[in-house]
Design goal:
Low-confidence stretches: none
Number of helices: 11
Structural class: mainly alpha
Number of strands: 0
Order of helices and strands: HHHHHHHHHHH
Radius of gyration: 18 Å
Largest sheet: none
Helix content: 55-70%
Shape: elongated
Distance between the termini: 19 Å
C-alpha cells in the first residue's frame, strides 16, 4: 500500500502542483452559497450564475430579502435550481439570525445551513478556515474505487474516512483539490484518458 500511496502522491504532485478552489467568490458567505450551488453541477456553470447573483445581491441582507422567483431566474441554468434558490435565501437568513452574519467553523454548525451537508461543510472549512479536511465528491469517489483505496459499495463518508487514514493530515486539502482535477481532466467517468495516467498499474479500469 505504501508504494501505491507514494506513486499516487508523486503523480498528483507532478501533474497538479498548484491547484485550488475554482469557485468564484470574494466574501466568505459567497463561497458557502457557491459550494452549495455546485452540487451535481460544474464549477464553471456555478461561476456563470454567481457573477450575476453576487453583483445584484451584494450583501447577506439583500439575499435574505430577495424574491425567490428572481433567484430562480438568475440560477435557472444549473441543476436543481428551484431547491437551490430556496437554499440561497435560507442560508442568508440563517447566517444573519443565528450566526450574526459570520460563517461558523464547526462542521456540525455548518450543516445547519440549508443545503449544506458533510461534503459542502468540509469544503467550506478547508477553503475559508484552512482546517484540514478531505471532502469526497463524485470524482474522488470514482477515483478511490478505481484505485482500490476504498470498496466498491463504500459511501462518500466511508471513503472520506479511509482516505484520511491513508494520507497525512497535512496533505488533505491539497489531495482533495488534486484528485478533483485528476477526475475532471484524466480519470473521467466515461472515456478516461488512461494513456495520460501513470497509475494504471493500480487501477481496476485498465
Amino acid at each position: 500500500m505504501n508504494n501505491k500511496i507514494t506513486a499516487i502522491s508523486t503523480f498528483l504532485d507532478e501533474t497538479y502542483p498548484h491547484v485550488g478552489c475554482e469557485l468564484y467568490y470574494e466574501k466568505d458567505y459567497e463561497l458557502v452559497i457557491a459550494v452549495m450551488l455546485s452540487a451535481q453541477t460544474s464549477d464553471n456553470a456555478v461561476n456563470a450564475v454567481t457573477k450575476t447573483l453576487f453583483s445584484r445581491y451584494d450583501s447577506l441582507t439583500k439575499l435574505a430579502e430577495a424574491q425567490l422567483e428572481d433567484i430562480e431566474h438568475i440560477i435557472h441554468s444549473i441543476g436543481l435550481y428551484k431547491n437551490k434558490a430556496k437554499n440561497v435565501i435560507g442560508i442568508a437568513k440563517t447566517l444573519l439570525v443565528d450566526y450574526q452574519g459570520k460563517i461558523p467553523s464547526d462542521k456540525m454548525e455548518l450543516q445547519k445551513l440549508p443545503g449544506v451537508g458533510n461534503k459542502t461543510a468540509g469544503v467550506i472549512r478547508a477553503e475559508i478556515f484552512k482546517i484540514p479536511d478531505l471532502p469526497v465528491d463524485t470524482h474522488i469517489l470514482r477515483i478511490s474505487k478505481r484505485l482500490s483505496l476504498s470498496k466498491e459499495n463504500d459511501t462518500p463518508l466511508e471513503v472520506e474516512q479511509k482516505l484520511k487514514k491513508i494520507f497525512p493530515q497535512s496533505c488533505w486539502i491539497k489531495i482533495h483539490h488534486q484528485l478533483i482535477h485528476f477526475g475532471r481532466d484524466i480519470c473521467l467517468a466515461r472515456n478516461p484518458q488512461c494513456q495520460r495516467c501513470k497509475l494504471q498499474g493500480f487501477c481496476k479500469k485498465k
